């Protein structure tokens, strides 16, 4: 899953990015409202963390413009404002939630998960055939065997399962799993796909990830030979 942080304080932005990446999110950061708005309008994000007071245009204005364009991405405000009037003002602008500074990272993480569940981006479990993946506990099982996956392997498998039945292009995978842009070298994906296939095959979930030559990869409900 890919998040965007719009925050002008480098210390806070860096702290959030590092913590969220440890939770397997891909994270982009913008230090002003105009850059953040441009990113949010041109890329596909699962959630935005937006500081209220940022240079360029305010977090409130970023939220308003996104909603005006019909963008329903969940938005959580990060704010030092603490009056009921301020909270109502932010929610009326289109925010889904807010958290007051200073805050505990675990509380923010819980609020993020609530928003993702509400949107349907984070279901309790993902499955196909004998494979079951639980994003909440970061566990993957094939039949009765627990898969020992690295964080990137787990994130890649989760992304493919969330898009089950659809071809995942290399550009989408690199953006959502590795937090890189589409023009980056995507050969790392092929390496991790091979890692995943070996572990899945060894556990009995064979031929699950299929290659669409020149495009990307797909997981279907019924396994088949890779092209």
From TrEMBL:
Listed GO MF terms: phosphorelay response regulator activity; transcription cis-regulatory region binding
Keywords of the record: DNA-binding, Phosphoprotein, Transcription, Transcription regulation, Two-component regulatory system
Family matches, as InterPro entries: CheY-like_superfamily (IPR011006), OmpR/PhoB-type_DNA-bd (IPR001867), Sig_transdc_resp-reg_C-effctor (IPR016032), Sig_transdc_resp-reg_receiver (IPR001789), WalR-like (IPR039420), WH-like_DNA-bd_sf (IPR036388)
Keyword DNA-binding: yes
GO biological process, one term: regulation of DNA-templated transcription
DNA-binding region: 123-221
Stretches assigned to the Response regulatory domain: 2-116
Pfam family, one: Response_reg
4-aspartylphosphate PTM sites in chain numbering: 51
Domain OmpR/PhoB-type: 123-221
UniProt GO cellular component terms: cytosol; protein-DNA complex
Protein's UniProt name: Two component transcriptional regulator, winged helix family
Upper lineage: Bacteria, Pseudomonadati, Chlorobiota, Chlorobiia, Chlorobiales
